């Protein structure tokens, strides 16, 4: 009797273990199954997302059975397009036996696949209708078309699932998937009040990070980020200290490697002066007697403005012929400058 009871308990344990094993280690959803929520590692994008574009004759609708209560109905030869970043794609449709297209074309990066929305007699929403895995982790172009030969057959477009770390893009966008190239032509020039860095713009970069060290080869400290031009003036440099600089290009995909390293030493402010002569586009000529520091400031403004940065006008503070005025300022508009020349001279003290 004890043996019979032991055998029965053992059999029950085997059954229970098998059941729990099937629950814990169940396979992922398969095409044709209803999938009311995205599985782990996925996220769901609604059919109404603004980055998903439809052809003109599609019909938008709503039902509580659909994901986010919305759907888009695609008739014969109607299509939907989008781009997405990631490695996998699922298309979520409504299944039904009547008038559901069994000839849906999916183009992923120009490769064509086919699937069906025809069901078994029941109306079922949020069905996993198509799946593509193991794509390269990059931006993919997708087009879904109802290719059924009968104009009475359609597709209920409900949602798409992609990587939980991915995102959807407008099909007309042209995003870059590469990090920028490294800068190879960084140069540095010491002025009286700053050290000016310049480099050629890098294709695909949206900004730059300037790094500095007092030791050859680093370690470097960031002294400026979100620099949008290809010129930067280090105004925090200390006179007599040699600095070593590198610049990094940045875009939405990451950062480039370090540029070539350059060095510069800020020199003491010179007692020299200069006559700055500016010829304007209307033929007028303006002349200013400037200190070396004032001249450096003007030239830095011109360089940065030529690169698309900085204010439109530059202010000269007149310290001569002030007369009865509290202050006299003269402004020069960048776009009105034709040429300028500099004549430097030393101040002779008696």
TrEMBL record:
Signal peptide: 1-26
Domain Fibronectin type-III residues, every copy: 179-269
Protein name as catalogued: Fibronectin type III domain-containing protein
Keyword list, A-Z: Signal
UniProt xrefs under PROSITE patterns: FN3
Species this protein is from: Cohnella herbarum
Annotated SMART domains: FN3
Superkingdom, taxonomy of origin: Bacteria
């Amino acid at each position: 009797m004890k043996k019979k009871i032991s055998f029965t308990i053992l059999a029950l344990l085997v059954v229970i273990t098998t059941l729990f094993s099937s629950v814990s280690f169940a396979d992922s959803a398969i095409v044709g199954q209803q999938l009311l929520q995205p599985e782990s590692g996925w996220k769901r994008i609604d059919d109404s997302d603004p980055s998903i574009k439809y052809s003109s004759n599609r019909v938008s609708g709503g039902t509580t059975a659909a994901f986010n209560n919305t759907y888009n109905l695609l008739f014969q030869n109607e299509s939907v397009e989008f781009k997405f970043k990631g490695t996998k794609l699922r298309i979520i449709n409504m299944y039904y036996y009547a008038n559901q297209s069994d000839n849906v074309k999916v183009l992923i990066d120009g490769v064509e696949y086919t699937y069906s929305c025809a069901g078994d007699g029941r109306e079922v929403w949020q069905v996993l209708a198509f799946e593509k895995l193991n794509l390269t982790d990059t931006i993919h172009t997708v087009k879904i078309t109802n290719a059924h030969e009968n104009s009475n057959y359609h597709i209920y477009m409900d949602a798409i699932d992609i990587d939980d770390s991915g995102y959807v893009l407008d099909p007309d966008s042209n995003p870059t998937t590469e990090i920028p190239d490294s800068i190879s032509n960084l140069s540095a020039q010491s002025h009286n009040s700053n050290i000016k860095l310049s480099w050629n713009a890098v294709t695909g970069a949206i900004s730059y990070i300037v790094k500095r060290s007092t030791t050859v080869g680093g370690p470097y400290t960031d002294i400026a980020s979100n620099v949008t031009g290809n010129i930067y003036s280090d105004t925090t440099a200390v006179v007599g200290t040699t600095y070593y600089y590198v610049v990094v290009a940045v875009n939405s995909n990451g950062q480039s490697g370090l540029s070539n390293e350059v060095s510069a030493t800020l020199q003491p402010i010179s007692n020299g002066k200069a006559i700055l002569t500016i010829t304007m586009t209307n033929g007028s000529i303006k002349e200013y007697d400037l200190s070396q520091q004032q001249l450096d400031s003007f030239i830095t403004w011109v360089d940065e403005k030529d690169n698309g940065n900085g204010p439109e006008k530059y202010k000269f503070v007149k310290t001569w012929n002030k007369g009865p005025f509290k202050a006299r300022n003269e402004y020069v508009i960048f776009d009105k400058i034709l040429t300028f020349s500099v004549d430097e001279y030393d101040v002779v003290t008696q």
